[in-house]
Amino acid sequence: MNKPSTHLPLLGFAAYSGTGKTTLLEALLPKLVNAGLKVGVLKHAHHDFDVDKPGKDSHRLRKAGASQMLISSRNRHALMTETPESEAEFDYLLTRFDSSKLDVILVEGCKNIAFPKVELHREQLSKPWLYPHDENIIAIAADSQVDTQLPQMSINDLDGICQFILNYVSEFNSSPNSSVSAQLTNDSLKTASSCCDILSPAFLSVEQGQEKILSSISAVDLEENTPIEHSYGRVLSRDITSPIHVPQYTNSAMDGFAIRSDDLTRSEYNVVAEVLAGYSYDKPLNKGEAVKIMTGAPTPCFGDTVVMREQASESGDMVTFKGATIKANQNVRQAGEDLAEGQAVFKKGTRIESPEMGMLASLGFAHCDVKKPVRVAIFSTGDEVQAPGSEQKANTIYDSNRFVLMGLLERLGCEVIDFGILEDDEQLMTRALEKSAEQADLILTSGGVSVGDADYIKLALEKLGNIDFWRINMRPGRPLAFGNISNKPFFGLPGNPVAVMVSFINFVEPAIRKMQGEENWKPLKVAAVASEPLRSRLGRTEFSRGVYSVNQSGQLVVATTGKQGSGILRSMSEANCLIEVSPAVDTVKVGESVTIIPLQGRI
Ligand code: AMP
Ligand code: MG
């Protein structure tokens, strides 16, 4: 995703259609302009919408194939850009504004995207309220009162709403964060409902969370030498250059007969020798001669072409190739054609899997230099969490998160330091977390980081400093704490086991890969066709557990595993992928394309 591109305050109006968003904006604009504001408006429209008219020159030129059409006159200009593949992203659209000529951008529609909004509500429409489910709503303009600490205005009080916008703009401009991102600056606008929240959670999209995390992670700089047989899953700490030619010598790719490429048309050849792999015929091959040769055996000098055995008929020490079309240099593997001496083979940061193990061995290496395993300390938290292995006490659940994490970390080749379940005591927790930072390169906890949780872990983390409590616009896995303890990266994952896994996959795995020295790792994402309708909430990324398969027409299709509660770990076990529904989408219909993240090899 592009960086949030505007340093301008951004304010949206969220409402069901029929509430009168456009009418309200139309009435507000003269007041805002009168107050001296230069206002940009971004409106999301139906996909059939067209600003142009059939018959107009610009329309004709577009229809003739102009993918961008800029039309200009004395008083205005407009750029029309065709986007048949996919709708432009919100952040990109913001870059289309000339921010030097504006004070604020008001947004109508785009209720799916996370940025500060005013909810508009009218009783007579009998529509549900949006604010309880949308953290981006910072104020309400309605014709009734509700029980919330958000600021409320009358939807008919244009001057009041105008004043609210003016205050919003001036607070934005005086906020030290105003250059960070229009999407994050609603912190400065937090009212009684949240300013008492000492931990000031920020709202982030999945991409924003990932970017913030990765920008603060660096590779762990320790290497060790390992035998190739133990190198699976490790990450190379040095570039590998080939010390030899692979193959070392030019050899036959077939069982057959080696002849000279300047001697292809003879009716018969004299077989002068038979060469098995591991041996060689050391005399130059003369015209009229052939050497019977096995796959992998070195071709004799000048014997640069091999005819396969199936095309040959032997009689005594003579061989003929009747009916065979023979091309010069066929069926021969050249010395160094796999890897040439001096060739760059692997860059440091390459993860060693089966082919890499084989290739390293083919270069003659018995050992290689790899990054030391990242040491990860793991904790579970929560009074209700009990270790497995003893009789279940009343009101407890067995700790599954730690074991999920052990598996995930093992897959990534980490060394796990298990700190067990943290006792619910702030001091003990603080001490344990500090100790873990001495022993590990990375610290993971689960549970107790939801906004509003009174868990001790939050108090301990808060004292340890440098930890942000975020709300990621995603499900499952909304709460996430991230920061560092004694300069070691720390993740406070949510409590629910599925949320733990989804947060790990999205945030922790990329961070660990970066710590391990793997550069710019990206998960595999592919498109599949939904075979059941999928619902999501606009404004957040929804990760459903899915099962993909190939249907009878050869199409990749995906369905969910059924019930999607974030406590249902079984859904993760049954899944072979996550289905990712982006914030801009609320319903995926049967037959529509969705993004899936295959999990094979990752969990
Ligand atoms: P929390 O974020 O602490 O409110 O936890 C959310 C949910 O996750 C609660 O239902 C917890 O009981 C559950 N939970 C927390 N830690 C664990 C754990 N280690 N294993 C399984 N479930 C957990
Ligand atoms: Mg808890």
Automatic annotation (TrEMBL):
SMART domains: MoCF_biosynth. Its EC number is 2.10.1.1. PROSITE patterns: MOCF_BIOSYNTHESIS_2. InterPro entries: MoaB/Mog-like_dom_sf, MoaB/Mog_dom, MobB_dom, MobB_MoeA, MoCF_biosynth_CS, MoeA-like, MoeA_C_domain_IV, MoeA_C_domain_IV_sf. GO terms for biological process: Mo-molybdopterin cofactor biosynthetic process. Keywords: Magnesium, Metal-binding, Molybdenum, Molybdenum cofactor biosynthesis, Transferase. Its cofactor is Mg(2+). Pfam families: MobB (PF03205), MoCF_biosynth (PF00994), MoeA_C (PF03454), MoeA_N (PF03453). SUPFAM superfamilies: MoeA C-terminal domain-like, MoeA N-terminal region -like, Molybdenum cofactor biosynthesis proteins, P-loop containing nucleoside triphosphate hydrolases. One of its GO terms (cellular component) is cytosol. Pathway: Cofactor biosynthesis; molybdopterin biosynthesis. Residues 377-514 form the MoaB/Mog domain. It comes from the Bacteria. GO terms for molecular function: GTP binding; metal ion binding; molybdopterin molybdotransferase activity. CDD domains: MobB, MoeA. Belongs to the MoeA family. Catalyzes the insertion of molybdate into adenylated molybdopterin with the concomitant release of AMP. This is Molybdopterin molybdenumtransferase. It comes from Vibrio amylolyticus.
